[in-house]
Amino acid sequence: MSKDQTKPLSRRKFLTGAAAATAGAATLGFPMIAKAQGPISMRWQSTWPSKDIFHEFALDFAKKVNDMTGGELKIEVLPAGAVVPAFGLLDAVSKGTLDGGHGVLVYHYGKQNALALWGSGPAFGLDANMLLAWHKYGGGRELLTKLYASIGANVVSFPYGPMPTQPLGWFKKPITKNEDFKGLKFRTVGISIDVFTGMGAAVNALPGGEIVPAMDRGLLDGAEFNNASSDRLLGFADVSKVCMLQSYHQNAEQFEIMFNKTKYDALPAKMKAIIENAVEAASADMSWKAVDRYSKDYIELQTKDKVRFFKTPDSMLQSQLVAYDAAAAKRKDNALFNEIADSQKKFAERAVRWDLDTNVNRRMAYNHYFAAKKPAAKKS
Fold first, then answer.
1. Nearest-5° angle of CA 141, CA 145, CA 151?
2. pLDDT by residue (tens digit) across 123-163?
3. Higher pLDDT pick, 121 / 317
4. Is 16 a residue whose pLDDT tops 70?
5. In angstroms, rounded to a whole number, what is the distance separating the alpha carbons of residues 301 and 303?
6. Within 10 A of 319 (CB to CB), how many other CB atoms are there?
7. What is the pTM of this model?
8. How many Cβ atoms sit within 10 Å of the Cβ of residue 345?
9. Residue range(s) in the chain whose domain bears CATH number 3.40.190.170
10. CATH number attached to the domain at 40-162+253-292
11. Considering Cα of 257, then 261, then 264, then 268, what sign does the dihedral take?
């Protein structure tokens, strides 16, 4: 081999050696010129006042994501009204005015009334956690994606956070029969508007923060919102001392975590995986926190605020089911509504039967340990 032939080989060896030396220098900690990429920031809004436990749930989710990503993704959550009204969240996230948000699906009911099937109604006997089981394993997730695409919503949605059965509502006096709803000025949302209208009420759909002021001014005779903690914070006990527990109008509701789809799709795969797992972690944590906080405020409402709680009569619960069926029948021309309802019904038929047959009724155990012991009858 000639000297001229060895030159290219030697040059290649030199270049290879130089690259290795550079890598070695990096390994030893020598400074290198690299383009640093800062954290991804997202601005969110919830549909709840800043002091509401629901806004706290939104902050809890954001903290989980922020912590799990090590600060690579930073979600800032603003309260309702900071950027848009509560009912304007879907449009704001879809357009990119907000990067994401925290609310409930039924708040977008005006866009597509099939959204009511995620929480506004009896859900064929499913409770909220079972409805989330349907969403993940029974086809609900795919149907929700299809629904949002049908209305041109540029969002990625994660239903989460099973809510306990919501009260029938707050009233001036106990509701004892169906006739008590005739002409009653009542607040609710979603397909429940049709349910209570069918029962004779004059319904007004108001955001959470507007309900108590409307009751105080006499614009409402009764209203429902959600739970002991939220209702107490909103001031229901200041305008009413009667709350009716148990109802089918929102028997299986859950929250919604929503991202702008363009922003979400641009995230690294690892970050998307963290978000999906954070949703499920937050869902469990929310349900545990709800048990703790709602039960405390339930006692406080009775002892400090002097609220009287009554169980909604079974006859009224049965009337709700009939009224709901009538409201659903009005959606017979909505193909998506029927497709989603059929999917839920198929899942519920086996899941609810399994639940009812398998899980013991807890009333007996509660009475055994906590119910006041009646004194023995005196002998004559």
1. 145
2. 999 999 999 999 999 999 999 999 999 999 999 999 999 99
3. 317
4. no
5. 6
6. 18
7. 0.85
8. 14
9. 40-162+253-292, 169-250+304-357
10. 3.40.190.170
11. positive
Angle at 20 between CA 14 and CA 21, to 5 degrees: 85
CA–CA dist 209, 216 (Å, integer): 13
* Residue carrying structure tokens 């909505």: 334
Q: How confident is the model at residue 379 (pLDDT cuts 50, 70, 90)?
A: low
Contact 79, 55 (CB under 8 A): yes
User: The tokens of 26 are what?
Assistant: 């990096």
Edge-to-edge strand list for the sheet holding 254-260: 73-78, 40-46, 100-103, 254-260, 155-162
CA distance linking residue 65 with residue 276, whole number of Å: 10
CA 121 to each of CA 2, 75, 127, 220, 282: distance values in angstroms, whole numbers, following the listed order: 89, 32, 11, 22, 24
Residues 6+ apart with CB under 8 A from 296: 229
The pLDDT tens digits of the residues spanning 86-101 come to 999 999 999 999 999 9
Chain-centre distance for alpha carbon 279: 11
- What fold characterizes domain 169-250+304-357? D-Maltodextrin-Binding Protein; domain 2 (3.40.190)
Tokens of 43: 């601005």
Asked if residue 122 lies in contact with residue 251, where contact means CB atoms within 8 angstroms, the answer is yes
Beta strands 242-245 and 169-171: pairing type? antiparallel
Q: Are strands 242-245 and 202-204 parallel, antiparallel or unpaired?
A: unpaired
The string of pLDDT tens digits covering residues 322-367 is 999 999 999 989 999 999 999 999 999 999 999 999 999 999 999 9
Helices (H), the chain: 3-27, 53-68, 89-95, 128-137, 140-150, 192-198, 208-216, 228-234, 236-239, 261-265, 269-303, 314-329, 335-358, 363-370
Beta-carbon contacts of 102 under 8 Å, excluding residues fewer than 6 positions away, are: 44, 45, 46, 47, 48, 54, 55, 57, 58, 61, 77, 255, 256, 257, 258
